[in-house]
Amino acid sequence: MEDMEKKVRVAFLCGGRSAEHEVSLQSAKNIVSATDGARYEKTLIGITKDGRWLWRGGERHNEADFRGFNGFLLNEDDPKTICLDEKNLVPFDCGQLKQRFDVVFPVLHGPFGEDGTVQGFLAMNGVPFVGSGVLGSALGMDKETAKKLLRAEGVPIADFVTVRKDTRIPAFSAIAAKLGLPLFVKPANMGSSVGVHKVHREDEWFEAVNDAFLYDAKVIVEECIDGREVECAVLGNGAEAKASCVGEIIASHEFYSYDAKYIDEDGARIEIPAKLPDVVTEKIRETAVNVFLILSCADLSRVDFFVKNDGGIIVNEINTMPGFTKISMYPKLWEHSGISYETLVDRLIRYGLGRRS
Ligand SMILES: Nc1ncnc2c1ncn2[C@@H]1O[C@H](COP(=O)(O)OP(=O)(O)O)[C@@H](O)[C@H]1O
Ligand SMILES: [Mg+2]
After folding, report:
1. 53 and 27 co-located in one domain
2. Is 293 a domain residue?
3. How many degrees, rounded to 5, is the angle at CA 291 between CA 287 and CA 297?
4. 252-299 pLDDT tens trace
5. 45 vs 275: CA distance, rounded Å
């Protein structure tokens, strides 16, 4: 008997050119494992740090491969050294994207992945993809622009100033007078806390700004918000976009740094649902969807907040392709909201597919 339904051909992009390359590989591994092989024909495409697209050739992956990721990833259980198994991979010809795949899932974080570049490239190639398009991705990635738009719409954000590489770094005293101490310094376009610094004293200031400049020519300096860190997941589109329950990050480090996120196993724990008064939870959920819509996002995003002691909320940032690593909040929030990892991935692929033109 013929197959009742032809399998949907999905390509998962992972790795990428950003400092979040390894995080992306971890995310992709989980997403691909949760994708139902009975209904989807899965193909992995890795992007190296220098931007080469690699795959295992046209041969089909079988389910056993996906358990071991044979010939695709090396050191897959170690977040520090996980990498593409380049010896077993060959160049992928991007001109084949549209003919080979029904939909692409760009499981990429950070610049050249989550910022609209790859989304524009996929759109140019006429292949539908999961997640926000060019505008939503670019707005979500650029912390300065996102904050300005949110502020214009009355969404509460932390006060900040922008520092550009081609201008003089402002004097510490002037910044401290405006924003108070300590301060947060971060690259405008980055993620996973890469290049983020908490600055308490003048002697830390220039080093922090210069380090952030390694990742972006635009750096934002923010007032420090004294509060708890909570996150809310959004899934869907337009009037159908829904917020999950709210989760809290309890970091044991001074802030939720890269190490606390991915390296130190005890760096942070998460609590779902966050213990908050119902009115605060509802305000967060409503604001999360609002932020998602203001920034023209699609399919999925995680919106991160601070909750101050008085119950007031501040939006920190949006992540248009949130992490899907073992410890990541996005899939966990949905699991607690009644949507399993498998169902979540299935919905996301269907949203992408739905944009086929
Ligand atoms: N204004 C702030 N006040 C207090 N903590 C902050 C502030 N900005 C960032 N942080 C801390 O730094 C972490 C990383 O900053 P974030 O803006 O979320 O960057 P990224 O995009 O790299 O995740 C946050 O999770 C939080 O712990
Ligand atoms: Mg963050």
Report:
1. yes
2. yes
3. 140
4. 888 888 888 878 778 889 999 999 999 999 999 999 999 999 999 999
5. 40
Pairing of strands 103-106, 8-15: parallel
Q: pLDDT value at position 299?
A: 98
Q: Which of ligand 1's atoms lies nearest the C-alpha of 256?
A: 27
For position 11, what pLDDT does the model report? 96
Task: Give the mean pLDDT of 40-61.
Answer: 88
User: 334 CA distance to ligand 1 centroid (A)?
Assistant: 23
pLDDT over 50 (residue 67):
no
The predicted model scores a pTM of 0.94
Q: Which residue has the tokens 């010809």?
A: 93
The number of the ligand nearest the C-alpha atom of 268 reads 1
* Structural domain for 264, as ranges: 141-156+226-320
Tally of domains in the chain: 3
C-alpha 144/C-alpha 353 separation (Å) is 31
Q: Establish whether residue 229 lines the binding site of ligand 1, counting it when its CB lies within 6 angstroms of any ligand atom.
A: yes
Query: Looking at ligand 1, which atom is closest to the CA of residue 160?
Result: 1
- The CA distance from 315 to 146, in Å, is 10
Pocket lining: 222 vs ligand 1, CB cutoff 6 Å? yes
- Closest protein CA for atom 8 of ligand 1: 184
